[in-house]
Structures are given as structure tokens and as C-alpha cells.
């Protein structure tokens, strides 16, 4: 795999021209439209089964990311046609607009690059791999290859990068080695560039991006919003960013909301927000855990009853295992198996008077599922996450139950390891996904190191 990636990289490096970058203007906040990628499966069971399996696959790689001195291992979002949230960014001089998946679970910003970009196994519904929009470095006067001794090379490839062809003064003529990003169901590979990122309010020069030439099952670029030094928030010097995820209940696919980036501490303070401090993962064994946004869930309450969850799953230990992260790239919330079993058992107990649909559970990968078609009214137990600091996220029912059939079958939209692969007890025990964040204003307050939220409609206008 690596050799085929590198042969493409050698070929495509001919298209990259190291030329000067452009200047910029000023601005303290930037607003970007945030859109839902459309649903493409007509069969709701097939859609939910894919989303459940994708959420579990992503959880596996968030929980056990690989480390390698010559590879960068991130966790990009799954293919764009299945409900991810996207933003458009303008890189280059003159600017070229590219669509990215917004991902708080990874840090590198990369895009499909050059006219010869190849995406293998990307024949998803509504996607023609030969028509994937790509960035063209040769058309940008601000494109520069990152040199091997550039500190930004180590941001991505680690401190053990070896540079050859160096003179006695240590000056090296070669570029930074190729990156290979491996994730749940595929990979991407390319070279690192320095580019200009333009907004109406301001332009940012010398922004590190990945120029990918070859991908497997990844037709869209990724805008990494994690805590790594190479992430967009870190490179732009953001003090805060916030978003509001419009409903993705398989409707309103043309509706968008805003992702807002803040670069100063004097921005307007939003009202009615509950805050919980970000947590640190004490582990030093896997640096990837430092990229995640950890929060502390103290209690999970179902229908007014506190679910009994062992402490080791709520707080990350010295080995790095346990705790909760917030991830815009996961669709359904992931719960470690003992946590999942406790939560679903409480739902099953409180809803035992409704008919269980075990066949649908097998079809969708979600559980429990109930047939409510003959019910005049349905009492769904309320689901509440209680965070450190007193913040409570009392979810509306549409954020944790999905109507999966016109015949009136609903399923709990949380997943665990019983659908795909063996149990993985490393890494975060709870991954709060985007489905549970629908119609919430969500704030990543980087200056004050805290996570904030409040319920609200996310439709613009």
C-alpha cells in the first residue's frame, strides 16, 4: 500500500510549484455556512445500518489510534454522502473553493489535490469518483511544498523525520516526506503544502494543509478541528469556535447553519449556555488522545433513574482509557459495552410495554427498537447527560430515537462493539456523536478551556 501511495506522490510532486504567498486583512470573527450532506440510501434500514457500522468503526480508531514516526494516523469522517457536516473553504491565490468535512476528532486539514487525484472504492450513491472536486496547486501562486527541515513537517510526521541531501550547514533540499493517513475503512496519502486561506474578513498565509493524491473510500477533504498543533483552530489562533448542527433526521438536507470562528477574547458572550470544563487525558503512552476534546459526564439518567456506571468508564485513567470525548465526525454516540448495556437495559425496562422489534435491530444494528404503530401516545424516557460543573444536556427525543420505518418502528441511536468487530476497551469509553448534538448551539471555548451548549433551532432564517 505504501509503495503505491509513494509512486503517486513522486509523480504528482511535479505539479507543485514553490512560489511566494499573498498578504491579508484583519478580522476577529468569521462565519462559515455549515451544511448537512444529503442522505443517499432510499432504504432506511440500510441507511441506519451503515451509520451504525460507520460510527462503530470510527470509534474503534478513535479509541485505539496508531502511532508511527513516519506516518500520521488520524480519524477522518466517513464518506460525504452519508450525513456528515461540511464547510467550504478557499485555499490558494487566487482562491479555489473546496468542500471539507468538519471533524473535531482529528487535526490535519487535507484536501483532494491535483487533476490526477484518484479515489479508489468511492463508488457511493450520488458520487462519481472521476468528478471529485480537487485543488490545483499549479494554479496557485501561494502554493509551497513544506521542506523536510520545516518544523511543520514534524507537526504531522513526528520528531523522528530523517532528512537526506543536507549540506554541512544542515540545509536540506528535499521536501517533507509523504504522509499516509489511515482510518476506519480506508486511507489517504499526499504531500504537505503551505497555502493561503481566505475569508471575506481576512486572509491567512502559510497555513499547513495536506495535498492528497490518492485515497481509498474518502472522496471529501477533512478540516481537522481537533486539539493538535496542525489543526485549523491552532493554526488560525482561535480563542473559540461554535456551531449549530441542523437536523439530520433524513430531511432538510438543503438547510444549513453556521460555524463561527473567533480570534479574540472580546467577542460577544452568548446567553443561556451551560458549561463544563474540558478534561485532560493523563496518558503519555498515546499522544493521539491529546487531540480529543474530553469532557466529564458524571451521570447518565434515563427516565429520571440514574444508570449505574463504573467510575473507570467516566474518567480517563493513567493508562488513557475511559472518559468522554465530543466528536462531530461520529454520527451516533458510542458507549463502551458495559455502559451501553446498562443504558439500553434501562430503556428496555421502562419501555417493556411496547413491542420489541428484534428483526429490525438485526437489520439496522441499533437496539432496542420498538413498534409504536398502534399506540395513540408514546412515553419515551428522557435521556439526560449530567456533566462536571452542573451542566445538564436533556436531549429531545428525536436526538436519541429515530423513526426507521413509515410503519412506526423507532430505534435508540447509540452503538457499541456488538455490531462490528471485537470489544476494544482502550481509549475513550463514551464518544458523543453529532446525532445527539442536533439543534444544539455547541461552543468550544478554547481560551477558557471549556465546553458549552444550549438547545436551540439551528435553521438559519
From TrEMBL:
SUPFAM superfamilies from the UniProt entry: Acid proteases
Residues of the active site are 103, 327
One of the record's GO molecular function terms = aspartic-type endopeptidase activity
Coiled-coil stretches noted in the UniProt entry, renumbered to this chain: none
Q: Does the keyword Glycoprotein apply?
A: yes
Q: Would you kindly state one Gene Ontology biological process term found in this protein's UniProt entry?
A: proteolysis
Q: Where is the signal peptide?
A: 1-24
Q: Where is the 4Fe-4S ferredoxin-type domain?
A: 153-186
Any one Gene Ontology cellular component term annotated for this protein: extracellular region
Q: Which UniProt keywords apply?
A: Aspartyl protease, Glycoprotein, Hydrolase, Protease, Signal
Q: Which residues form the Peptidase A1 domain?
A: 85-454
Q: Does the keyword rRNA processing apply?
A: no
Task: State the family named in the UniProt similarity comment for this chain.
Answer: Belongs to the peptidase A1 family.
| Name used for this protein in its record | Peptidase A1 domain-containing protein
Species of provenance: Cannabis sativa
